[in-house]
Amino acid sequence: MSRLAGRLAEGLADLQSRDLKRARRVIDSPQGAWVSEGGRALANFSSNDYLGLANHARLRAAAHRAIDEHGVGAGASPLVSGNLAAHDAAERRFAQFSGLPRALLFGSGYAANLGILAALAGRDAHIFSDELNHACLIDGARLSRAQVTRFPHGDLDALAALMRESRAQVRVVASDAVFSMDGDIAPVPGLLALCEAHDAWLVLDDAHGMGVLGATGRGTLEHFGLGSPRIIYMATLGKALGGYGAFVAGAPELIEWLVQRARTYIYSTALPPMCAMVAIAALDLLDADRELLASLRSRIAEFTAACAEGGIATLPSATAIHPIVIGDAHATLEAAAWLHQRGFLVPAIRPPTVAEGTSRLRVSLSAAHTRVEVQALVAALVERLAA
Known about the structure:
Layout: H1 2-17, E1 34-37, E2 40-44, H2 57-70, H3 78-81, H4 85-98, E3 102-106, H5 109-120, E4 125-130, H6 135-143, E5 147-151, H7 156-165, E6 170-176, H8 188-197, E7 200-205, H9 220-224, E8 231-236, E9 246-250, H10 252-261, H11 263-266, H12 273-288, H13 290-310, E10 321-327, H14 329-341, E11 344-345, E12 348-349, E13 359-364, H15 371-385
Parallel strand pairs: 2-11, 4-5, 4-6, 6-7, 7-8
Antiparallel strand pairs: 1-2, 3-9, 8-9, 10-13, 12-13
């Protein structure tokens, strides 16, 4: 055992030497625009809580009611102990919200994407995956046993050429809808057109678009005004919606196939019913309070304008994610530590999450932030980074 542990110790030391070893912070407050670490208040620009709902009073109340009415645990897989009424209600609500015929709850976005790709694509399939896809789409493609081809990020011409060459019985294009480390939006209309032309499924991971994009916050499909029975739409409940879990929406036959064949659904205990009821409350709140989306978009516009004025180079983004690429991992860690000392929590993103030489500060904006907080962050970034 000492030899095995020694290999791990050597690997950890190697990560440390390259400034790639992660350390967990202990946050002793709820998520929000401000968090507490060891009793110290920090302006929180690290969270995916884009609408500021993770500690919202209406969602907390929904959680308490759900526990009182439905208990804490789901007991088993929905196919073993039955689909709970809370889950059924949430699935119906998600289908209605996304504008697709049917929806299915999963334990997480990671589990959903693994389940989708492994259920759809076997050895007779060909998956085309954007090179900047999230790890769950990459891993789902690997587990499917299909042929997997990565295409250059957002390059429709390259994808078209690859699809023309494929002779697979089943073709699947898989892409993030909003890319989590760059904040850019996939060319979804072009992806769908290629799937229509080549008789393929389009798997879209809208984890970072749901609640952010579209006239009413319904995500990337609303943003582009798209709908198709070829689309398999996945969105998480733990980012803009403030809770935990995920759903997949699409054609009735597709959802029924996932019920029967998605291993991460069949062999996992169902979400706690509280998660389903909290998600319904979040969707209801998003529909009722138009100011949530308006506030988020104001903060995005203010941050972008202030960075441009201050000479801070950010990657182009109309979403809540705004990366500032520094390049070197050590320099990025130093910048994040400097901001932390001044009361700002901004994560340093390093390989393997992003490519070598593209380490970055990832600023996440929320409807819960104020204009003053955004301006203070940009002033600190200018002090540290501007030439």
